[in-house]
Amino acid sequence: MKTFLTILLASSLGVGAGAREIKLLNVSYDPTRELYQEYNAAFAKYWKARTGDDVVISQSHGGSGKQAQSVINGLEADVVTLALAYDIDAVAQQAKLLPADWQKRLPDNSTPYTSTIVFLVRKGNPKHIKDWDDVVKPGVTVVTPNPKTSGGARWTYLAAYAYALETYGQDDAKARDFVKRLYKNVPVLDSGARGSTITFAQRGIGDVLLAWENEAHLALKEFGADQFEIVTPSLSIRAEPPVAVVDKIAKRHGTVEVAKAYLNYLYSDEGQEIAAKNFYRPRNQAIAEKYAANFTQLKLVTVDQEFGSWAKAQAAHFADGGVFDQIYQP
Amino acid sequence: MKLNQLILTVAVGALIVFPALAADDTATNSTEAAEIEALKQQVQALDQKVQALEQQRESEQQAAANTNQEQIQELDQKVRILARQHELDKEDAAAAAKTQPRLKLDASGFTLSSADTNFAISLHGLVQLDSRTFFADHNIVNDSFLLRRARPIITGTVFHDFDFNFTPDFGGSVVQIQDAYLNYRYNPELQLEAGKFKSPVGLEQLQSDPYLLLNERSLVTDLVPNRDLGVELHGDLFGGAASYAAGIFDGVSDYNGTTVNTDSDNDKAFAGRIFLQPWKTSDVNALKGLGFGLGGSYESDRNGAAGLTPGYTTDGQQKFFTYSAGVIANGQHWRVSPQGYYYYGPLGIMGEYVVSDQDVKNGAALADLQNTAWEVSASWVLTGEDASYNGVTPRHPFSLHSGGWGAWQVVGRYEELNVDQSAFPTFASSTASASSAHAWSAGLNWYLNRNVRVNASFSHTMFSGYTGAVPAVPAQAENVFFTRIQLAF
Asked: Which residue of chain A comes nearest to B77, CA vs CA?
């Protein structure tokens, strides 16, 4: 009977001798595919050397808001690496899968890299787009995703809003009018950043794509620098995409240790190098300087500075009936 | 000829003609020269006008072309935007479809499930219309058509890990709940089931009703517990190569066709079973279908007559043995059942042996009676489909339109049940019961499709030890012809 129970428990709990194969699911936002493909391979190698175990990391990508909702609805994410803190807050608050203070668990508010929003225009910049003022001009067609579903789109919206506030002396009514004019120029709202890149670069729609900095660089790499060029506006927003272990799911999967190590390794020199190579601005100063040529210097504002906090920005602008719903006419 | 070319031709012609005229009249030379000069200037002026007109026309044409180009580009953008919007609408529709509940209706029944399949409910059913015709039995009233089983079966899942089953039965003469249980599935290896379900002992008993080879289970099933109420830990290990079940139950007597929903005493029964199919996941085809195991139960049973079988029955469901009035269960009741099957292609063989050992009491008389039974059955699918513990799936379902004839299977069985000789005469009477029965059966099964089956069989049962009057069931051999029409989905 003892032997039988041992076999039963071993079989049930997956306990065996020798190296284990550990499976991890990273639920991320749209443009991080390439970053995590490279990072996952590096981490698997690191983990194998450290523990002898094989770790197989699966990736899931989509609009950040949609991805968060999927986790809330039962997608078994061991870790989430989303576009903005509000989306992980939603997972913590609605599904109680991780503590409310999750952002304090890793350095830099659990944001191992940052990014910003820039413009991608067609080669030669035929519409002479230099700054946000040019984007709202009549006759300019703008491509950007839907802020309701895309984290990148929310950063973009807030960057434009922050620019208008600065330009019009913090006049909120004028800032609203500014973003209203911007979205009047948007003919198609994709659900995520990658979809918008496809709309602009592959489907040939629009004069300017409001894109994550890394996504703009990727488009140049993917489609050729002879087709597009990046325009850096005078002001943009410091986008801080955070990461977190989804405690309850990782605990259930028995992957807490490896999930924590997976996120911690993003702060290592190798993790920071991979981020920089994929055009995410690294936190590590030395590595940031090494890759300084990849990142144009510009004035960056933060959500906390301009909008108080993500919770306030979400409630005022993106919640049902918020400013975006008021100004956007499909 | 263009206008400027015409003017130039006229001018050049004039220049040639006028000098000729001038030769005749030298006096007018100077005047003529002046006229010629004037004409030249006129020609030049005309030429400039012509050029200006041509430039104006060209620029107008260019402007028109530019406008057209812009309009084309604008239209091109509009078309691209519409195409992309259509593409996104399709993506949205596809994404929305993934969140919609799913409805499925096929040979497995009707299922409604949530998009993520965490919630599901299925409706299945089993209806069996039988006939039994007895021969040479001194006109005992037993020939009949009967609704053997009529079961709506409701199964489902809630919150991904919790399965349930509710199966009432409107067949026979008593409406009863056959199954009503909740099963928590941590993973295939570790599951916990609670409620009313089959006790994990007999191989034949555990086989699902629609898949039985013959209309009725064999004499072996007389000695194993039927459905019982309790809690059971069970699971499949190593991809199904081994399975186990162990539970605590109210405890039921040897075969009792009518199940109950309450307990009649404080005693509880322990039942368990291990079944191995070592080659199930291997590449050894000839051994993949080999399975063998051991089931058993134990109960300290002091609950009077309710702890004893209401009677052992034949294939024709006629009682041939009952304990005498006043006999009660009086202590331990244990069963052991080694069992196995072998399926390979169209061949199927199943065998089982059971010992049911029970302490009984009649007044001051005590005894430990050990009844035994065994059976072996074999089947062959004539149309070549694979035989299995879970029935036969016809390769070509019956259809007069497309010419399929379903699957045909021949079956045979031999079985015995022997009551402990110590039962007679103190605990059972030879004038009312036989001490043993052995029987053979042969039949033909026609699987029209996955849902409809028709079968016919003949069973011959012989008894020994009976010394009572005639007519009575064990007074002569039982010869019964069965038919069945079955709908299962």
From this structure: A205
HEC states along chain B?
A: CCHHHHHHHHHHHHHHHHHHHHHHCHHHHHHHHHHHHHHHHHHHHHHHHHHHHHHHHHHHHHHHHHHHHHHHHHHHHHHHHHHHHHHHHHHHHHHHHHHCCEEEEECCEEEEECCCCCCEEEEEEEEEEEEEEEECCCCCCCCEEEEEEEEEEEEEEECCCEEEEEEEECCCCCCEEEEEEEEEEEECCEEEEEEEEECCCCHHHHCCHHHCCCCCCCHHHHHCCCEEEEEEEEEEEHHHCEEEEEEEECCCCCCCCCCCCCCCCCCCEEEEEEEECCCCCCCCHHHHCEEEEEEEEEEEEEEEHHHCCCCEECCCCCEEECCCCCEEEEEEEEEEEEEEEEEECCEEEEEEEEEEEEEEEECCEEEEEEEEEEEEEEEEECCCCCCCCCCCCCCCCCCCCCCCCCEEEEEEEEEEEECCHHHCCCCCCCCCCCCEEEEEEEEEEEECCCCEEEEEEEEEEEEECCCCCCCCHHHCCEEEEEEEEEEEC
Nearest-CB residue to B80 (from A7, A195, A204): A204
Q: Find chain A residues with C-beta within 8 A of B116's C-beta.
A: 73-74
Chain A residue with CA closest to B239: the answer is: A11
* Per-residue confidence band for A15, with pLDDT thresholds at 50, 70 and 90: very low
Model pLDDT for residues B168-209, shown as the tens digit of each residue: 999 988 899 999 999 999 999 999 999 999 999 999 999 999
Query: Is any Cβ of chain A less than 8 angstroms from the Cβ of B118?
Result: yes
**Is the confidence at residue B21, as pLDDT, over 60?**
no
- Asked whether the CA dihedral A27, A29, A33, A38 is positive or negative, the reply is negative
Torsions phi, psi for B308 (to 5 deg)? -105, 155
Q: Give A-chain residues touching B237 at CB under 8 angstroms.
A: 7-8, 11
Report the gap between the CA of A29 and the closest CA in chain B (Å).
17
pLDDT band at A4 (very low <50, low <70, confident <90, very high): very low
CA dihedral B113, B117, B118, B123 (to 10 degrees): 40
* Optimal mutation site among B69, B75, B84, interface A, most CBs of chain A within 10 A: B84
Do B88 and A188 count as a contact with CB atoms less than 8 A apart?
yes
Residues of A in contact with B190 (CB under 8 A): 8, 12
From residue A301, how far is each of A17, A147, A155, A304 by CA, in Å? 53, 19, 11, 9
SS3 A91: helix
Residue A215's SS3 state is: helix
**Inter-chain residue contact B237 with A11, CB threshold 8 Å:** yes
Contact A12 B80 (CB under 8 A): no
Print burial letters for B434-455: b (CB count within 10 Å at least 16), e (below 16): bbbbbbebebebbbbbbbbbeb
**A-B contacts (CB, under 8 Å):** 44
Predicted local confidence at residue A224, as pLDDT:
85
User: Span A73-92, mean pLDDT?
Assistant: 94
Contact assignment for A205 to B80 by CB distance below 8 Å: yes
CB contact under 8 A, B77 and A188: no
- CB contacts of A4 in chain B (<8 Å) are 244, 274
Do the Cβ atoms of B238 and A11 come within 8 Å? yes
B481 burial (CB, 10 Å; 0-12 / 13-18 / 19+) is middle
Residue A4 and residue B83: Cβ atoms within 8 Å? Answer: no
Determine which of A12, A150, A249, A252 to mutate to test the interface with B (most B C-beta atoms within 10 Å): A12
Asked whether the beta carbons of A235 and A106 are under 8 A apart, the reply is: no
B198 - beta bridge partners?
A: B227
